[in-house]
């Protein structure tokens, strides 16, 4: 087989520039960011990666010789299969060998719960079809991993990471799996995830599940991969698969994409069928790809997009909440047609300044990204969400999710047989966890399950967060779309809005849970709009990403912009599987308050966030946990107007 190793990318050097008084005024809260960029962050490839810096021998896991599949794109792999220099069976076996060496042992990434025992047989069959003259498309023979909450009718489990769903495999393929098989993809296995897509506990560790334990970050094994699509983000980054499929309700595709250095497309709700996917909320759930390039992600989106209604998912014949009742547009036949290396030229893009000020390191990489976009011909306009604090209070959103979850889960369980809670309800899942607490709840509980079970099923009844279900839907549409994304786009004549996706990966902490600060996914998530994360740089050896988001069914525009950004930055760097980052108690530089802080400290909200209820945003999960038991719900509902997505990307 020919060598398809990609070369090292070196992006043009960039510098921070001023765009006007409003930007300077806002950035007074992150005055230390420029110093951070110069002294401690790798931004857009301008500084050497940590792999080239001094390390102790034990700090870098040995992963064996470089494989010719590393960083290979779908197009490169497909070209070799068409030329006859590569067989799908060989490709599958190479990925399986790499999974054994890196995921199941060695660094022990633990991103994959199960490989498909039929994968080699399927690959051989596809090779035979190709020899006979059949070509199913660009995914033919390409291995792909699916998140464990996506049903497959084969020998694999589909369990959302929970032992309550382990037993008889699903009786029917999810529509996503069926579409991938139709496109000729080889379903290689199931990826690790935050159990129940991170919708069980307020104190979970992203990437942990009872079925498989903790998924790790390929850049530093002791860092978190985010979630809930943890393995779906980590596996392609580690070159354990060509591409993968994750799911998102709010942040679960784009946050793992950010922290694992890959592209993640969170599609418009209803663009991809959720039939056969373990649900949280029919209002917000969606399914999308993780890949190393925008082109690969667009190729997968082409295969899984639903162009005709799926009788098992009414959303596939409708528009999402933000465009409720409006006609659904025609779906493009091929999303790769919108790839454009000059996609930023002439584009007018909003810069959401609401998401700055939470991490100087993130801000530094984001500012360098904006400079690169301007140099590529984009016009940038600062924008602010008028209901930003309301969006991130989370009350309306969480009301919708909790209400949907009880009923949507029961519908899903009705189709399962031969598992402990088959045909059951949320209460059955709660009981199972209580009866199997040593395996299911060794580190955190099920407060979200209990809260959901307490909800009234009447959509007109005011629930614990101060909204009825109907009112919460209307409120989310107002703050996310009507006076949110759609208003900002129209008032400023914008194609899309950009924001930093998330902060750098935090150390995994099974005892205290996630150290999540804030992500930018919620405005789009609450109204069902699409987002694309693209790698934007490095900080302390871990990756960061930038999110492009816009109105419903704007994936063509987002792919154009994202591919243009990728072409001028080439920011992705291969992970080096460090056991830990090679520093102790890093000091990144002084903040406005004069104190020094590390890249993973809680933010000093008194100087970073004066406009947003600082006293509640600075409360830590530890202080909440100290109140114990059901009191956590009282605190959240009572004194804290605190964003739930700060702790829970689901």
Structure summary:
The protein has about 650 residues and is an alpha/beta fold. Helix content is about 35%, strand content about 10%. Residues about 1-65 and about 585-645 have low confidence and may be disordered.
Summary keywords:
650 residues, two-stranded antiparallel ribbon, Amidase signature (AS) enzymes, eleven-stranded mixed beta sheet, alpha/beta, disordered N terminus, single chain
CATH class assignment: Alpha Beta
Strand order of the largest sheet: 1-3-2-6-8-7-12-13-11-9-10
Task: State the separation between the terminal residues, measured CA to CA.
Answer: 40 Å
Number of helices: 23
Count of folded domains: 1
What is the CATH third-level topology name?
Amidase signature (AS) enzymes
Q: Give the number of DSSP strands.
A: 13
Q: Please state the overall shape, judged from the principal axes of the Cα atoms.
A: globular
């Amino acid at each position: 087989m020919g060598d398809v190793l990609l070369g090292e990318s070196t992006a043009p050097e960039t510098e921070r520039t001023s765009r006007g008084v409003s930007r300077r005024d806002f950035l007074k809260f992150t005055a230390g960011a420029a110093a951070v960029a110069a002294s401690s962050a790798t931004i857009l490839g301008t500084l050497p990666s940590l792999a080239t810096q001094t390390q102790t021998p034990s700090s870098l896991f040995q992963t064996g010789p470089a494989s010719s599949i590393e960083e290979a794109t779908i197009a490169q792999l497909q070209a070799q299969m068409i030329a006859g220099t590569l067989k799908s069976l060989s490709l599958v076996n190479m990925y399986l060998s790499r999974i054994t060496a890196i995921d199941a042992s060695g660094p022990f990434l633990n991103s994959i719960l199960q490989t498909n025992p039929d994968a080699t047989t399927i690959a051989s069959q596809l090779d035979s079809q190709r020899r006979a003259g059949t070509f199913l498309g660009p995914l033919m023979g390409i291995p792909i991993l699916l998140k464990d909450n996506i049903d497959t009718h084969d020998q694999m489990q589909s369990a959302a990471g929970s032992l309550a769903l382990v037993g008889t495999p699903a009786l029917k393929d999810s529509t996503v799996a069926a579409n991938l098989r139709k496109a000729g993809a080889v379903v290689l296995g199931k990826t690790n995830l935050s159990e129940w897509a991170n919708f069980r506990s307020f104190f979970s560790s992203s990437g942990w599940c009872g079925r498989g334990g903790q998924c790790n970050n390929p850049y530093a094994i002791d860092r978190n991969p985010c979630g809930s699509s943890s393995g779906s983000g980590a596996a392609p980054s580690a070159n354990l698969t060509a591409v993968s499929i994750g799911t998102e309700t709010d942040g679960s595709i784009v946050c793992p994409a950010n922290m694992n250095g890959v592209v993640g497309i969170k599609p418009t709700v209803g663009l991809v069928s959720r039939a056969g996917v373990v649900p949280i909320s029919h209002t917000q759930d969606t399914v999308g790809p993780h890949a190393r390039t925008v082109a690969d992600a667009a190729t997968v989106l082409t295969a899984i997009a639903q162009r005709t209604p799926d009788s098992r998912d009414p959303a596939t014949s409708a528009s999402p909440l933000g465009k409720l009742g409006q006609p659904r547009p025609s779906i493009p036949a091929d999303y790769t047609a919108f790839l454009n290396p000059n996609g930023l030229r002439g584009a007018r893009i909003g810069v959401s300044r609401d998401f700055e000020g939470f991490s100087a390191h993130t801000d530094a990489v984001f500012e360098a990204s904006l400079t690169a976009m301007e140099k590529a011909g984009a016009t940038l306009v600062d924008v602010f969400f008028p209901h930003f604090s309301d969006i991130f209070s989370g009350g309306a959103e969480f009301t919708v999710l909790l209400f949907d979850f009880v009923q949507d889960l029961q519908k899903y369980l009705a189709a399962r047989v031969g598992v402990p809670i088959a045909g059951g309800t949320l209460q059955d899942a709660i009981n199972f966890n209580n009866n199997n607490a040593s395996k299911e709840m060794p580190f955190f509980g099920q407060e979200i399950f209990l809260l959901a079970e307490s909800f009234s099923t009447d959509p007109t009844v005011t629930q614990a967060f101060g909204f009825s279900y109907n009112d919460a839907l209307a409120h989310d549409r107002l703050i996310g779309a009507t006076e949110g994304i759609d208003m900002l786009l129209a008032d400023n004549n914008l194609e899309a809005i950009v924001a930093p996706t998330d902060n750098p990966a935090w150390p995994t902490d099974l005892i205290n849970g996630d150290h999540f600060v804030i992500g930018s996914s919620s405005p789009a998530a609450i109204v069902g709009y699409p987002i694309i994360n693209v790698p934007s740089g490095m900080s302390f050896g871990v990756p960061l990403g930038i999110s492009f988001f816009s109105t419903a069914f704007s994936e063509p525009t987002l792919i154009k912009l994202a591919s243009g950004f990728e072409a001028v930055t080439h920011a992705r760097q291969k992970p080096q599987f460090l056991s830990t980052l090679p520093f102790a108690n890093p000091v990144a530089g002084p903040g406005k308050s004069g104190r020094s802080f590390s890249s993973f400290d809680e933010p000093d909200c008194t100087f970073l966030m004066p406009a947003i209820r600082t006293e509640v945003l600075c409360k830590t999960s530890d202080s909440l946990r100290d109140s114990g038991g059901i009191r956590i719900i009282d605190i959240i509902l009572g004194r804290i107007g605190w964003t739930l997505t700060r702790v829970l990307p689901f």
